[in-house]
Amino acid sequence: MRIGKIAPALVLALAAAATTACGGGDTSSSAPKELVYWASNQGTSLDNDKAVLQPELDKFEKASGIKVKLEVVPWTDLLNRILAATTSGKGPDVLNIGNTWSASLQATGAFLPFDDAALEKVGGKSRFLGPSLAATGASGQPPVGVPLYGQAYGLYYNKKLFAEAGITKPPATWEELVEDGKKLTKPDKGQWGLSLQAGQVTENSHHAAILGAQQGAQFFTAEGKPQLASDPSVAAVQQFVDLMQKDKIVNPANAEYADTAKSLKDLSDGKAAMFMNQASAGSFKNIGMDMANLGVAPIPLPATAPPNGRKVTSFVAGINMSVFKNTKNPDAALDFVKFMVSAPEQALLNKTYGSLPTVQDAYSDAAFQTEDVKVFQNVLANSAEPMPQVPQESQFETLIGTAMKGMFADVAAGKPVDGAKIRDQLNQADQQISAGS
Amino acid sequence: MPTALDDAPAVKAAGAPGPQGVRRKRRRVALPYLLLLPAILLELLVHLIPMVAGLVMSFFKLTQFSIRDFSSAPAAGLDNYKFVLDFNAAAGKSLLGSFWISILYTVLSVGFCWLFGTSAAVLMQKDFRGRGLLRTLFLVPYALPMYAAVITWSFMFQKDTGLVNDLLGTDSFWLIGDNSFWSLVVVSVWRNWPFAFLIVMAGLQNVPGELYEAAAIDGASWWRQFRAITQPMLRPVNQVLLLVLFLWTFNDFNTPYVLFGASAPKEASLISIHIYQSSFVTWNFGLGSAMSVLLLLFLLIVSTVYLGLTARRRNAVV
């Protein structure tokens, strides 16, 4: 009776709701091709990103007839959104991924491998910067994306505060940084030598990786087994935590800093004299920093290199562009990737975002000839190594970064963080990574 | 039941049921099921199927390597359970830690919510000027969008720029370290006590006024009236209220997530946050599912024991 009529209708309605709720490009061949693109948040806000990207997408549509539907995804949601899309198989056609996740996402098998043929379609392998291309997946396997925005770490410093303290040049070694930091720390005036995003998990993990490399740490064995609790790793984490604990050149309130904005503001307001961050001239300008006072140098190295220590002052940071294997329009997707990594787009977008082009032919633009940009360019080319390109990389970042966040909280509360405590935490991280392998 | 028995002779009295009668009877039998069908279907889709999926997942080694194709995930047997229940190892130790934090959080939060809700509801019984306004004000935390409310608290708890340190004249951290647990309790109580207030207030409407009048004539004090009339009359309402608050609070994910972000300080790492981190941050869905199943079992046992105890008490009273 009625039940017979209602049930199929209900099932149909539910099925329709389920399919229309999912993303993905237009599949009909007669309709104009349409791609869905998830962009990561690069600009000052999601709206700012839309304002930057939409004219470029319109340009691409005009030239190719392919419409690109844009969604800007905040950083905090990006990895989970990608993971959900990977699980359901219903995701965008093209998307941005943080390049440190490359090997982890590669392991899911959800992304189109950029083999030589695919790389050729987007302009050829030789166009890309070597270090950036190295951060697109595990070595020996076809990458799961191409680099889109290049980034590297540098040490920003406030020239005015340096001049006031009689310091003439930025520190080149950690010993100098601590020494300068002490001269610049005046808690009664609310001024500190260095600002840290100590409550930010990923930032902490990046610094662990950089300092770890300088101390000679290898966080994973050649077989991919985690070994976070090694002597050099413990030394690296201790050195970083000690900037607040022992050297006292960091305001303990930084243990609460979970985003970049506060540290940028501290440097701009003269509350901190130094700040280690990825290229962020655009953000400094936005918050009203007197750009004449802003200097940048590579992150320091130890005065005496520890055994097996590597001359690393940054990891290869940046954003890659990947294509979902499930896309119904792989050719259109590759056309779009090719457009985004073309020299004019690379120059325009990286100029706007204050990042670095990932293709050689975009560097002729005058915007990338300034002294500051050259510092980052040199770091990226000569003293940057990719984060561990292993499938467990995202676990590594989360676990070590969270542990360090807790250590800073302890230091801020006056609880000592010694080597044994650090080793214990890193041992726990090792166990947890192993459980998920 | 009585209606079915009443109906039966009526049908028989009318002689053998004709085709119309059979249809009517069948419709009467089918109608409740038909009306329940959408709810059953949605219940299946929203709750039961994911629950069964979660249970199945807990027996597999489901990580980022196999998430795309569930069927390829290697079986783990009871390994996931063994791993999280090994309290000498990192995962078990941290799970146990989160469990105790959740217990303490639940006891404190539910206790204060009930205390504030009941006190306010009893005080609001008497008619006085401004009662309506006060009632509305009390309900504001409950009516505010959760995210906006909790994020405002997180601003107020900031060390250097927050209002809390300003008002208390302190210089403490509230979002990291030991205090983070207390921040969590404060926000939770602030958000949930209006619910207790609403429910108790509704319960009080059912207490007959004559009881108080009779008690007053007998010379019973306000406290005596509260103990001998209000509390017993509110018992059924309280039983449901406490169970619902317990389940909500123990499973609370939104408050810590919005207050602290994806990585809550270890002092305030509730079990829900812990499971989320295992599943979605370190990408070990099998392990996360095993923890969820254990959590479900715990809540089921507690609820069953609670319902059993309260039913026995009710029967004893009757």
UniProtKB/TrEMBL annotation, chain A:
Signal peptide bounds: 1-23
Superkingdom of the source species: Bacteria
Keyword Signal: yes
Keyword terms: Signal
InterPro entries noted in UniProt: Bact_solute-bd_prot1 (IPR050490), SBP (IPR006059)
SUPFAM superfamilies documented for this protein: Periplasmic binding protein-like II (SSF53850)
TM regions (residue ranges): none
Name of the protein this chain belongs to: Putative sugar ABC transporter substrate-binding protein
Organism in which the protein naturally occurs: Amycolatopsis japonica
Lineage, broadest ranks: Bacteria, Bacillati, Actinomycetota, Actinomycetes, Pseudonocardiales
TrEMBL record, chain B:
Organism phylogeny: Bacteria, Bacillati, Actinomycetota, Actinomycetes, Pseudonocardiales
InterPro entries according to UniProt: ABC_transporter_permease, MetI-like, MetI-like_sf
Keyword set includes Transport: yes
Annotated ABC transmembrane type-1 domain residues: 99-306
Location of region: Disordered: 1-20
Name of the protein this chain belongs to: Transmembrane sugar transporter
GO CC term (a single one): plasma membrane
Membrane topology classification: Multi-pass membrane protein
Subcellular location: Cell membrane
SUPFAM superfamilies xref list: MetI-like
Superkingdom of the organism of origin: Bacteria
Assigned protein family: Belongs to the binding-protein-dependent transport system permease family.
Record key words, sorted: Cell membrane, Membrane, Sugar transport, Transmembrane, Transmembrane helix, Transport
Transmembrane portions of the chain: 33-60, 99-124, 136-156, 181-204, 285-309
Biased composition (Low complexity): 8-20
Provenance organism: Amycolatopsis japonica
Alphabetical GO biological process terms: transmembrane transport
